[in-house]
Amino acid sequence: MRAAIFMLGVLLLPLAAPGAVAWRADGWLTQEVVGGERLTLGDEFGCHGMPGKNVADNRSVISECKMYLTSQINASKWGAEPLSFGLQETDSDSPTRDLLMAEGFRIVGDQIPSITGQNPNWAIERSGGSLEQNVASISAIEQGIESNGYANLYWEAQIEDLNVRRDKDVLTWIESQDYWFTTWGEWFSSTHPASEFERTNQSITLKGTATSNGGWGVPGNTFLSITGGQITDISRIDGGVLDELTIEDNHLKEGFRILDQSNATLTIPEGALVLITWAGDIAEVQIEQGTFNNFTPFMAVGHHTTDLFEWSSPFQDSPLRFTWLIEPQPDIEPTWILPMLAVLIILVAPVAIRYTLNHDREMHYSPEEE
Length: 370
Known about the structure:
Elements: H1 2-16, E1 21-24, H2 34-41, E2 44-47, H3 60-72, E3 84-88, H4 94-102, E4 107-111, E5 122-125, H5 138-148, E6 151-155, E7 158-159, E8 162-163, H6 168-175, E9 179-182, H7 184-189, E10 195-199, E11 203-207, E12 220-227, E13 230-236, E14 255-258, E15 263-268, E16 273-279, E17 284-289, E18 296-305, H8 308-312, E19 322-326, E20 329-332, H9 337-364
Parallel strand pairs: 2-19, 3-4, 4-5, 6-18, 9-18, 18-19
Antiparallel strand pairs: 1-20, 7-8, 10-11, 11-16, 12-15, 12-17, 13-16, 14-15
Helix pairs in contact: 1-9
């Protein structure tokens, strides 16, 4: 009995072994396969964490996840370093946010309804619900935009052992709207309107500014409004070309669109000089932060993404752009424990067998046989 108990304990030892959770890279994430395709389209790759670790308990997760991501792929077509990190509200304390800033992360979300006090990060909260079938809602999206000025939906391809399907009807409706299909990092990096360079009675020259606060080198979005005149022309005067945008342009690029006689939207790269002329006498010119093509920002987020192929496959032909919050796939870590178990079993097995044989011989021994 003692030998049997000992053998059972040896076999159960791995269940109690600490640090058995490890990870393996997602083979679909690299530049050569699905990751590269999504990157070319304009998706963004951010971080979510590492298997078996919690940011609140172990802040080294932040640097570990960043190292994993950057070893596999760039964060965006706009920049190599990741800007976005997925956090829950309970994980968003000041030391964590400060460390995120130190590692280059500028955006947190999206399960963070509000952050009070000093906040060095740009917080994007969930707005508009899910893309999941029978859960996605047009009214929820419209309410989210009304409340926050943007839509930030989430997507989970798999919940435990259940495969999740997208809501095709809601997705078709989304794709037909005048939305700017963008990502967390792209939107954040574009929030630097042009500045006034020169002005006359009939024109104003704007100069594209640089991305601020650690963002990628993304052209900035500007909204221009004049009072008392009519805009007649917009063009670059530094040798470059600024294309005229149409209502069909939903993805960020350099350009302009005259909305009406008094208002225009412009997306201008750093250093570019753009001349806007008008007819009539104007009393005022206003230059403000805008959104691309004057559209509502619409973002989709793939949460806790461990298998990029599985999560992105339903959206191969969709104009939506995703912020994929990456985490490696959990795996079993090889340790010294398994070889040690093999040695123990080799040593114990003969002893147990000999004990069993001797015990069996004693049980069947009788004095008459002597």
